Amino acid sequence: MTPLSARARMHSGGVGTRHADRARASERSARTTDRLTEAVTRLARQHRVPGAQLAWHQDGRTHGVAVGEQEHATGRELRSDSAVPIGSVGKMFTATTAMALVADDDLDLDEPVGAQLPELARGAARLGDRLTLRQLLSHTSGLPSSLADRDAATSSLRRYVADRIAHCEPVCSAGAGFSYSNLGFLVAGRLIEVITGMSWFEAVESVLLRPLDIPATFVVSPNAASQPGHFAAGHTVNTRTGEPIPVAQTMTPALAPAGALAMSARDLVAFGRLHLRDAPPGRAAPLDADAIAEMRRAVPGAEPFGMAHGWGLGVALFGRGSTRWLGHDGTADGTSCHLRVDPAGGCVVALTTNANTGAAMWEDLVPELAAVGLDVGMYTTPLASARPVPLPTEYFGRYVNGGTEYSVLAARAGQPQLAVSGEVYPGLTLYERGDFAVRHPASDKWIHGGRFVTDPRTGRIDGLQTGGRIARRERSPS
């Protein structure tokens, strides 16, 4: 038997070790907070971002910093709980709500959605017979990114799916490849409405936001009788003067499942912790472990060229090998927001900014995060190192994705150029492996433009992929 005095010494040593560990963790946390506060303050000033929030969950604790204003030159402070329009990060919320219904056996990932949405069978493509929820959430549905019409401004989600999406022309066959699609998430949102009997707004709040204790703030009202919640203004930065100019949000109710949420960086971290299987104290998690694991499993054939290393169900995958973060980036009107989750390390990072220059701020912040142990697996598409090659004649022409038109044209000086809905990117340079670079018209810097896509059956160029979106080659009748 261990003598009492020895047991006391062992107990005392254990307590002392735990106190020392907590002290070191507290000191490390303080150093991290000081460094990231300085970085956010400096980078917001450098990129002319009126307001920014950074929150992170590390070593079991959540920390955050908020700097600047909700709207430029108003003096209204951007607090740690201020809501910021998060744009496409909201797609993770739509996907997570849908997966909660899958976990309850109310939806099936691999059954055609036509049984729940018979209106999708009305178009010539009979989309309801082919599309599955897995394809919708992984951007392998073949649906265009968006449509060029004004119907979304006056339509409900139900009418927009039935009258417009059901009749749209796919950019590729369902399941054939990755093409980022807002329309796919509108269909997923409509599925949520049919299964729950609620509007998308009500379902997201009831199934997801309320259980996570996240305030329900939307940038658009679900109906004319209600008002959207208060949120920070977005800004576009004048490239000549550097002055941030407030802009209005143009989201409509019909497009809400693709990005109508607004929230703080701390709220995003609370949501991100769900994907760690880390529910708030005293609350049941909306998803079980199996559904969470399914969401972060890379979907075969989903190659999000220009966006991420892989794609799961509603989540982008960043990094390779043993380090794998998941998350999403989002831009609303004049905002740029980013969420990253490390399931293996138990860490979450979220940045919200209320300026269109926030994406560049995020890129500069990533090294600072890595220096404090939050290496978020940044995806970059570097300029090709392969040898430039002449652009074959067959590459010239018109490519279409829904409402966006891409034209590969010959310039007067002999160097090809890319026009995107009329905006010209000069100096298109093709490389041996099929990708290409262009000059950005505003900064005159070389940027990775995308890649050309070949039909494996014929070997002919049948599209181009830029920003994760495939544009289908339009051929003349001849």
TrEMBL record:
Superkingdom as given in the UniProt entry: Bacteria
Positions with biased composition (Basic and acidic residues): 18-34
UniProt-listed Pfam families: Beta-lactamase
Domain Beta-lactamase-related, chain residue ranges per copy: 38-361
Chain segments carrying region Disordered: 1-34
SUPFAM superfamilies cross-referenced by the UniProt entry: beta-lactamase/transpeptidase-like
Protein name as it appears in the record: Beta-lactamase family protein
Native source organism of the sequence: Solihabitans fulvus
